[in-house]
# Entry
Amino acid sequence: MKFEEWEPHYQKILLLFGFEREDDERAAEYARTLTDKDDLALLKAACSGKKVTVCGNAPSLKDETDLIQGVVFAADAAADYLYKKGVKPDIVSTDLDGCEDSFSEMSSEGTIMVVHAHGDNIPLLKNWIPRFKGPVVLTTQSRPFDGVYNFGGFTDGDRAVFTALEMGAEEVLFAGFDLGDISVNPMKHGKLMIARELLGILGYDL
# Structure
């Protein structure tokens, strides 16, 4: 998705949640100072022409691992769950708030870390990015620049879907998605509703 197409959705998100664009931009710039890695080519090669399963971190994931096919693209904490169950993600979409030590292990084993910078995760960026020894791709919610990309999407899960499609995935499958979960706090519920709306733009009804 071109930034010009994404920006109206982004502006709506800023208004709805009270986020500051300048904070997102500052975080993205800071993330770029923490690594010189830009493994976009590896990310494209991993997805292009492939069947990709995006794994969310809903409780249903434990009952849906048999649905996983092709490239395993895990959303944040789902990566830790899968890894401990013996399924190493090929790619992880993360804003780092679900990171565990296993993320460093996965990175060392070649998992591509698609690390998202936003206004309130600067301490996490500082802690985790230097620990990723394998491939890294940086993303932002705001305007992309020099090795920091914006493929569209808002939460780790729907952002993974946007990324997979932007990288040329032939088909995207889903495991561990529950965007209608009303048991979460209001902020999280609101984010899930935005995720559902954005995935609807791509033609997915979840």
User: Anything to note?
Assistant: Residues 3-201 form one domain. The chain has one domain: 3-201. The CA atoms of residues 91 and 112 lie 5 Å apart. The beta strands are 51-55, 71-75, 91-94, 112-117, 136-140, 148-149, 171-175.
